[in-house]
Amino acid sequence: MSRTIPKRSMQSGVTAQGEPMVWLSGGMFAIACLMIISLLALVLWQGLSTLWPRNYLLYARPDGTLVAGEMYGRTRENGATKLYLRSGNYDVSNQHFLYADEADLASSNPWKPNTLWTVERKEWGNLYGFPKQLSWVDSPSDKLSEEVHAAMKESRSIDQKIAHEKEQLKRIDHAISEARLSIRKVEINEKSDLQGDIDEAVAARFQAAEESPLNWTPSRTISDRAKNAISRFADVSYKADAQMASINEQISQLEAKRAERTVLFELPIADPIGTLELGWDQVLAGKLDSWDAFKELVGPLSTDGETNNNPPTIEVHRISDEQVAWQTLGNGKLPRNFLLRKASPSSCEVFSMREHSVILADIVRFFPPNQLNTFQRLGVYLARWWEFLLGEPREAGIEGGFFPAIWGTVVMTLIMSLAVMPFGVLAALYMREYAKPGPLLSAIRISINNLAGVPSIVYGVFGLSFFCYMVGGYIDGGPAKAGFEPWPSATWFSALGLLAVVGIVAFSVALLAGQMGIHATNRRRWLRNASALLWLATLAGIALLLIKTPHFHGFYQAQLPNPTFGKGCLLWAACTLALLTLPVVIVATEEALAAVPNSLREGSYACGAGQWQTIHRIVLPYARPGIITGFILAMARGAGEVAPMMLVGAIPLATELPLDTEFPFIHGSRSFMHLGFQIYSLGFQSQNSEAAKPMVFTATLLLLTIVTLLNQTAIWLRARLRKRFQSSQF
Amino acid sequence: MNRLKAIADGQPVESVIHEEVLAKDVVLSVKNFNLFYGRKQALHNISMPIAKGMVTALVGPSGCGKSTLLRSVNRMNDLIDSVRIEGDMLLNGESIFSPGVDVIQLRKRMGMVFQKPNPFPMSIFENVVYPLRIDGERDKTVLMQVCEHALRGAALWDEVKDRLHETGLGLSGGQQQRLCIARAIASDPEVLLLDEPCSALDPIATSKIEDLIDKLRGEYSILIVTHNMQQASRISDHTAFMYLGRLVEMAETSTIFTRPQLRETEDYITGRFG
Question: How far is CA A321 from CA A314, A331, A548, B10, in A?
Fold first, then answer.
């Protein structure tokens, strides 16, 4: 039976080569690349450009109103181009940024004042204004900025002194609460109320002469410990009282001194002061025939009023056809600025600029933006980055530094990695090396894979209810605080005895099951299962005994009702994230272990190695690069996770770092700042989210950089390890 | 052929073991050994002596249980959950399968080399002294002595003595296999088990390994599984022919290859079957 062979051709059809598929898949690839590139480009551009100092421009609308600000760029909205300007002066104008229709400003020829300063302040954000007067100098010289710089150094030392004094206050406060706490501990121990005795002792201490030690006998019999604690408390409060008074006195003195030096600015906000009979031609030429009239209108042009007799030189800046700015240049005096608006052919309205004074110590940085060349701009830019990376936040985090957030993110991620690694690796080790494959193991494996897909907020809720309230509450105040009813003592001790018996049985059964050789079959399996069940029962029993104990009342009972660990904090955030990343680590570790060739295990067993020896000498070293890959994935996921952080410990503004030079260095019970959370809270939760938007991108860039850096370190580590296992077979 | 057909039909068949083999000093004796993978029986009532200081080759078609028998000697089959055995083996008179035997101690008395070279991902030195390491030996001089002795024994010393601390994975296939042999003889085993040690190697590496086996004869008792009749004839003193889990004939190699008692053996050896 032969079948007829159809005529064969030398050409193949389009379905064979699949040319369209190449285009389709290539196109998809190109789209993917484009998305990645545009994301990176957006974050990079926005993040890098935010801190760049820009020119400050003044525009006038046709109706004569002024629009002024640092040029941040243009946006298109409903077909109209809008200028995006940072207007600053929030304390006067109530806005940081404004949008202006470019069409409205078309007739305007923007004024770029050279004498204007950008002033970054500790509060209220940027100020843009013309320096008018320094409170500590009568007639400022040409070197105005040097003078201000020099004075700023002095003010800064005052600020440091104030900070130092406040530190002292904090220390005293701490000592008092320590002393109070030790009384509270005695109270809890003896189940007594010592408040009356405390009042008595304190009163006695304050009555006693300054030098004499406390000579106080309690009016009722109390224990020596209580007496000592109360005496110490009375002593501490007495000393603190005197010290605090003097420190507060000093602080108020320093603060008064700090407020002495101010800089007066003219803000580009126009206030009408009157009309001047002056032809518009003369206005444009800067000629002032009626000097006396002008003088009457504007008052003294300088602080000493001396030069008022001679007309000053006037520099004219035409802003639009009907708007002109005048800068009066005295001899060596700071110029004053006026706006003139055409009212009729022979008269014009005069506006002065609103005055605003700034305490010198509040100034962080200042520069004349329109005078800077590119290098000077770069200098300001780098100084801002320096502050951004290493400084403290100002203005509720909108301005200044992100150091606490960076630090918090890094510390939390590292603690999370340290917590998740042993758990994940050991669990995967059991599943791959020890557990008998079967439906139960498969079910558990599938569940773990599914856990990796659970929304992270779910972990946040779990972390809050389990770690913060239950475990944290237990640590703070024992089972009762965590919401468990303790057993009576007798019941608890009998349960302890029972548990001990179960544990011993479990141990012996495990030994027995391990001893069985190749002969026993069904019996061995049965024993193994029994020992596993008994172990589980023992573990459950231990947990039950812990939560039902009547003999434990927490480590921080004295601090209650203020929670120590019973709230969101660094430790629980790290634990929650560890839980969140556990599936990632387990899955990666299991894959790494599965990739270890069985021949290596057999080789090791054949040498007479036991199972654990084989695992830790052969299997684990071989799987290490893969395990570290899991570690990298976990870190990458953990560092960027925000949703659970909101519930278990991240706060928008923390006064203390979670890891510092103060004993015990890592403060697990402190709340912390987190970059990801910072992005969310700055951009969408702060009162001034509009002002914070540019910072959001900078923070995003930073977060991306940190995650990349952490990953890169881990990848480098893995590459180093991998070198050892490179094989050249044959 | 009728004997093989009887085996295929599952009838018990008496194995033929020549007198000359039985007369030798025995290091390992297999006694009525049966092995089951679950319900399936893989080895049927095998009894055979392994002579001390000699090379014994196990030959037979694929799936006849050679490797299973070899892996039973150091109880590597314990790793498989469904395996069950009957009968016993005696290593220098001591039972291998009695319940009290510690498998780990038992394996330390044997060395094993696998089909594919499996050096550990560590240095050449650490590979060789691995059996001592797991025994907790830390003395550098002792380890070095053992390492040199084993590598010389495995005819690898001259090739690697300058790079003992480089990774063992950097060696060629043949060198890797000799490294595995060095590792197997480092603990001075009573029996050396070779599971088709040359099947993954090229002819030159194979001939080196064969020379090595020839050199080790006398010092170690070797049990080798091979598919290569020429190899068996070249290197072994005794040859056992197995078929479908049963031992068919066992004799001195020259006897098996020139005048076997059974026609079935001759057919297999000469390639007329299998």
Answer: 18, 30, 85, 115
